[in-house]
Amino acid sequence: MRRYVYIREIEPNSWLHLFAQENGAACLRDFRLNPPKEDRGRRLSQILKLLQTKSNHWKDAPYHSLKDVPFHRREIEKLNRSSNLTGAGPPASVPARPSRRMLPIDCAKGLHQLVGPVNQLTYMKQHSERMLEVLNIKLEHTYAVAPCRKQSYELNRKKGPRPQVRERLLEKAIWWQWRAEAVAEHDRQFFPGLCRHIQTFQMPLQGRRADKFWGKLDLVGTTETGLPIVLELKQQRAADTPLRMLIEGLAYAVAVRRAWNEGTLRNQWNSVVTIQSKQFVAPYPLLQVPIIGIAPTEYWNRCIGKPGKRTKGKVRKDAWAPFHELCDACGIRGFPVKFVQFDVEEPDTNSLPLIKNVRKVNLPK
What was the pLDDT predicted at 89? Predict the structure, then answer.
């Protein structure tokens, strides 16, 4: 495991730039050009201690701010044990001694590693509020460790055999019905106004063995302007919470942004989409990556439940408000979030399911 994670420079008008202007840039001044090793941990410690300041305007600024800033893993872990904002302590909005079952959100981990905490249905409210507090730091950390793959991103998939895993089967069915060629033939967009067609499914991200915890994107769609959009899919019986769906989609969207801006995804995407639309020009840098959380209607009915009744898998009423706030915060930082449902018609033969009635989900407020 690498001891340091590097980001390159401080972007103008980003949240860290505004933070430096407001709180003094003494500890940030030398971060631009590879500071000495012995100063890295100390400077990061100063930044993270200053970040405990709350309710500042810089928290709503764009997050893409750092490059070549080293994150010393041991220093983050040490602060994680002592600091409430950067560590595993309970949020200010919950009791000082929460239930032992509530897993903390560790700031030493990226978004792609937060599987356990964000999948606790009982504590979805607390974890949503916690993610709001540390969202900027999480986005910075995740962008720093996101892989830049040199191999193919498999943007031109073939139909191949029928998958046995249910989620993979739904992914392939959606891709097959709304791939670029099918949309050009039947002229029905996947989600009008947001996602025109599905470019690929199971898009790989890992570029080397060291890129742990990075899987494959369920589905990657194309916006009206030809840019990528991340679709995070859950099957009917998935026990995953909407918060986990959001965090997984957000992690993949951050990885797509870095792979586009610093890797080979932009060139590969440009070569594929240009064939479909000759007027397409891949922009640089990519500042916005939309996210769609998509699942069958049965999944959303279980999460929303019926008013006044407690049922298995139902999200508590008080958890929806902070969850919506977290979605809005992601949109401000360049990751607008939508949730979509669809119906599934099972085939009589050994073919792909038929996906029908793709529509927006009306989540409780």
Answer: 34
Neighbours of 209 (CB within 10 A): 6
DSSP string over 302-324: HHH--TT---TTPPPGGGHHHHH
What are the sequence ranges of the domains in the chain?
A: 1-87, 166-360
Q: How far is it, in rounded angstroms, from Cα 74 to Cα 144?
A: 16
Q: How confident is the model at residue 307 (pLDDT cuts 50, 70, 90)?
A: confident
What is the C-alpha separation between 217 and 205, in angstroms, rounded?
8
Residue 226: pLDDT band by 50, 70, 90 thresholds? confident
Task: Please report the DSSP string for 235-273 in residue order.
Answer: -TT----HHHHHHHHHHHHHHHHHHHHHSSHHHHHHHHH
Q: How are beta strands 197-204 and 216-222 bridged, if at all?
A: antiparallel
Statement: the pTM of the whole predicted model exceeds 0.85: no
Q: Which residue has better confidence, 170 or 31?
A: 170
**Cα dihedral 275→198→288→242 (10° resolution):** -170
